[in-house]
Amino acid sequence: MINIVLFEPEIPGNTGNIMRTCVATNSKLHLIKPLGFSLEEKYIRRSGVNYIDKCNYTVYENIEDFYKKNKGTFYYLTRYGHKPHTEFDYSDSNENIYFIFGKESTGIPLEILKPNLSHCMRMPMTDNVRALNLSNTVAIMTYEALRQQNYNDLLRDEPHKGIDYIEKSE
What we know:
Structural class: alpha/beta
Number of strands: 7
Oligomer: single chain
Low-confidence stretches: none
């Protein structure tokens, strides 16, 4: 299973977008306190649209609480990583994979990154920005893992208008 972990997220719009991505990809979301916003629906509804109630998520008191309750392979996305995100193997769909993302302002603390350097990664980019938007990064990582897993059981055709919608349109 693909798991998205947000360490102390600060911006409700990003978390709402990430919730929508998790619903679309059957990924689980893990939120580590403190949160920079309320999880009340009115604060995140705009970004999560109407999918928030379908999001599988858990809130943890702190990083120790998260580690104690979860087992698998942990990957850390950080601007300080030395390997690109595509260098890792996420192809085992039976493995619990956790992509850990830091807070928008400061990222993941160095005391968490340092003992996990072999699982730290960076998305390649120019020196004109320090990082991509959090919700964009989550989507890129989630879909890279899904690509390696051949998209598991996700639909490849639009389910509501029909597989031949374009062909039948005038």
